[in-house]
Design a protein that fits this description.
Rossmann fold, 383 residues, alpha/beta, binds uridine-diphosphate-N-acetylglucosamine, seven-stranded parallel beta sheet, 16 helices, 13 strands
Length: 383
């Protein structure tokens, strides 16, 4: 059996690492039919900090094939990935193509695989924000429509697929593969010192004060086009962060390249760097981010992955979006998260409420660190 798996952007790496390790584990058992595994990196993310460091931290094998697509518009990224990936699958003729998540690489390689009549498996299937303004929702819909095996993270996702008419025989509720990575790296992360992470990554060390050990802090990440691409949206969010959150406690902000670029374009960057208590960091490695999340007083984020990690760690989480494809992480479904959108008055109200919330870790069914093993077994059984 020959499998090609695909990664493209940062949130893919923590999903592919457990799969690669489970495939290696499978091959160590001589009683089992061996699997040849080729890892393809489309190169959508390519920086040391957005890509390479994750391969080292998560011990992901080096990609067998790097398509080096790089940055570009959606059409450029998807189109160029399809052209390059078509050559790969024509040469390699895998039995299965396995894609993860919802980035442009996921969608591009799914379309290519099906046009080449290959079997396709999607890990993290069935998530729906029902918001077609999100590029990721388009990627999710296309990928799920084309997939032969759909690995869902939870029951809500499985039901979304049924509602869309996906036959039951294709759906497998296997849990959340990203939590496999969290569980595998929790101890390593716990050994890191918060002050050390800040010292090694801070962009504005000259202006922000030193963090005291064990001092409470808030953590933010933000990169969605809906939050950062328009000054009339980004500026009020920033005002809230700098005027309210930073007045309460240090705000630690690992900055995404897209967000930094937009803050510079809208003339918001220098003001943020100069704000005392706003600790601006370079994009962090996996362990560093996990460590910060483990101790944060609260998280503000528009990342779906962090929402899920907060759920398992118990970090109170304000999601800076109007909708989510991951409702299982929200308070009404037993998680600790709240959707707050991006209007400043909303943020203010929910932030004040959330400050009173206690840490209560929640673990949806099968978010147990063993999703990858189940996935490999299912693919083998499907043949
Ligand atoms: C992509 C994903 C998004 C995911 C996010 C995580 C899609 C549609 N979006 O969005 O779902 O949550 O990744 O980061 O696939 N850049 C660098 N270095 C890099 C990569 C990008 O500096 O290694 C800069 C580029 O200038 C680029 C910008 O970041 O223009 C945005 O990158 P892009 O790949 O277009 O999308 P993301 O916003 O990162």
């Amino acid at each position: 059996m020959k499998i090609i798996s695909v990664v493209g952007a940062r949130p893919n790496f923590m999903k592919i690492a457990p799969l690669a390790h489970a495939l290696e584990q499978h091959n160590r058992d001589s009683a089992k039919r061996p699997i040849e595994h080729l890892l393809v990196h489309t190169g959508q993310h390519y920086d040391e900090r957005m890509s390479r460091s994750f391969f080292e931290d998560l011990r992901i094998p080096r990609p067998d094939i790097d398509l080096e697509i790089g940055s570009g518009s959606h059409a450029e990224q998807v189109g160029q990935t399809m052209i390059a990936f078509e050559k790969v699958v024509r040469e390699q003729r895998p039995d299965w193509v396995v894609v993860v998540g919802d980035v442009n690489a996921t969608c591009a390689c799914s379309i290519t695989a099906k046009k080449e009549h290959l079997k396709l498996a999607h890990i993290e299937a069935g998530l729906r924000s029902f918001d077609l303004e999100m590029p990721e929702e388009i990627n999710r819909l296309v990928t799920d429509r084309l997939s032969d095996l759909l690995f869902a993270t939870d029951e809500i996702a499985s039901q979304n697929l049924r509602d869309e008419g996906v036959p039951e025989s294709r759906i497998r509720m296997v849990g959340n593969i990203m939590i496999d990575t969290l569980e595998a790296h929790r101890e390593t992360a716990a050994e890191l010192k918060i002050e050390g992470i800040i010292a090694a990554n801070q962009i504005n060390a000259a202006t922000a004060p030193e963090m005291q050990p064990n001092a409470p802090y808030a953590l933010i990440t933000m990169h969605r086009p809906s939050n950062v691409d328009r000054p009339e949206v980004l500026t009020p969010i920033l005002d809230f962060l700098l005027d309210e959150v930073c007045a309460d406690m240090p705000l630690i902000w690992p900055i995404h390249p897209r967000t930094q670029k937009q803050m510079q374009a809208f003339d918001l960057w220098n003001r943020t760097l100069a704000r005392p208590n706003c600790i601006m960091l370079q994009p962090l490695g996996y362990h560093e981010m996990l460590r910060l999340n483990m101790q944060a007083e609260l998280m503000l984020t528009d990342s779906g992955g962090l929402q899920e990690e907060c759920c398992v760690l118990g970090t109170p989480c304000l999601t800076l979006r109007w909708n989510t494809e991951r409702p299982v992480t929200l308070r009404e479904h037993g998680g600790g998260g709240v959707l707050v959108g991006n209007a400043a008055e909303n943020l203010r109200r929910e932030y004040r409420q959330l400050r009173r919330q206690r840490r209560t870790p929640q673990r949806p069914p099968l978010w147990d660190g063993h999703a990858a093993e189940r996935i490999v077994a299912e693919i083998m059984q499907a043949g």
